[in-house]
Structure formats: C-alpha cells, structure tokens
C-alpha cells in the first residue's frame, strides 16, 4: 500500500432500532449498527464485521427546540471506540439547525419552498479491514485502514417531490488521514477525539487536506401535524 497503488474500500451498515416516547417532553432512540467494512480483497472474514450502537435521549424544550444527548459505541478495527453526544434541533419558519457535537452540524435556510441553502460540518472516524494475499498465495495478510476527516461544506438542496431531496455539496476536508496499520497494532481505548495507548506506527504516508464535491440523495419523512 503506497502512493502508486489504488485500493477501494467500502462499508455496508444495517440500522436496527426503536424510538420510545416517554412523555410529552422526553423520548429516546436506540439503534444497533452491524456493519461490514473492508476492501473485500480475498474472502469475507470475521475481521470484516463490526458492531456498533447508539443510545440517544431527547427533551422537547419548546415547539421549535429539542435538546439531544447520548452516546455512540463501536468495535472498530483500531480498538474500542466511544463518543459522548450532545446537541440540539431547532426549526422555525425558514431556518433549520441540527447539531450533534462532536459528530456533525447542519444549518439549512429555505430560500424557496423547494430550494434550500446551507452549511454543514461532519467529523468522520472509520476503520476498514484489509485483506491481501501473501506472495506464496496460500495465506491472507491482514491490516486495517483508519480514516479520519473533518469536512466543512456549503450545499444546495432541491426537493422535486415532497420527501425526496437532491443535495449538491462542495467544501474542504481538514485533518484528513487514511492510515494503514498492522492487524495487531491497536489502541487501548478511543474516547471521542482522544486515543489512549496509541503508539501505532503507520505503514503508509499520510494524505493531505483538500477540496471535495459530491451529490447526495436523501429521503425525508414528514410527520403528520
């Protein structure tokens, strides 16, 4: 794995959960997040599977404002990972803000009924299993890719049909890295932005920050009033 070699990695996640309304003010959401994340180089192995979970509690402060807090946990390839979550959701007139620290922030403003402008920030921490055949072809060498990035972008959203949103986005990724480590090179514990017992040695050179652009397709379900 070096600057002259291209490699594709991908992940597939299944979200299983439930939302519970405890009272007019309080509700909670629980999600189980089984995932396959790999370069799918040789065969499907147990190292390609990860299991995560989210517990999120919401308090409705007013008709326009809801507070949120909880935690996300995942058995990443680099070690156990836990992220405390704190945020809020605000929607009034043409302005909508959805913020969850330290994971994401989305701010949207409706300039027309079907068109929105906005800015967003997204922090990414992911890991992928890597399988490569040994030179003799009889064994599989395992390593993993640790992806870190902070994306800051502006976007334009268009809703041609109610609930179907097409969003074009352009921005810059800062603090970006795609580092490869030996399979046995792990951290003791990851807590949000902090990594304890991290004396790992990367096997590749780091990526630099840079611009990006993408198109997203989203579905929004509108609750009956």
Instruction: Indicate the radius of gyration in whole angstroms.
Output: 20 Å
Q: What overall form do the CA principal axes indicate?
A: globular
Largest sheet: 14 strands, mixed
> Are there runs of 5+ residues with pLDDT below 50, and where?
none
Helix fraction, binned, reads under 10%
Number of helices: 0
- Give the strand content: over 45%
The N- and C-terminal alpha carbons lie at a distance of 54 Å
| Secondary structure category | mainly beta
Strand tally is: 14
**What's the overall average pLDDT, rounded?**
91
What letter string, H or E per element, gives the SSE order? EEEEEEEEEEEEEE
Q: Could you describe the 3D structure shown?
A:
The chain is mainly beta and about 220 residues long. The protein has no helices and 14 strands. The chain has strands spanning about 10-15, 15-20, 25-40, 50-60, 65-75, 80-90, 95-100, 105-110, 115-135, 140-160, 165-180, 190, 195, 210-220. Strands 1, 2, 3, 4, 5, 6, 7, 8, 9, 10, 11, 12, 13 and 14 form a 14-stranded mixed beta sheet that branches. The radius of gyration is 20 Å and the shape is globular. The termini are far apart.
In brief:
By secondary structure, the chain is mostly beta strands.
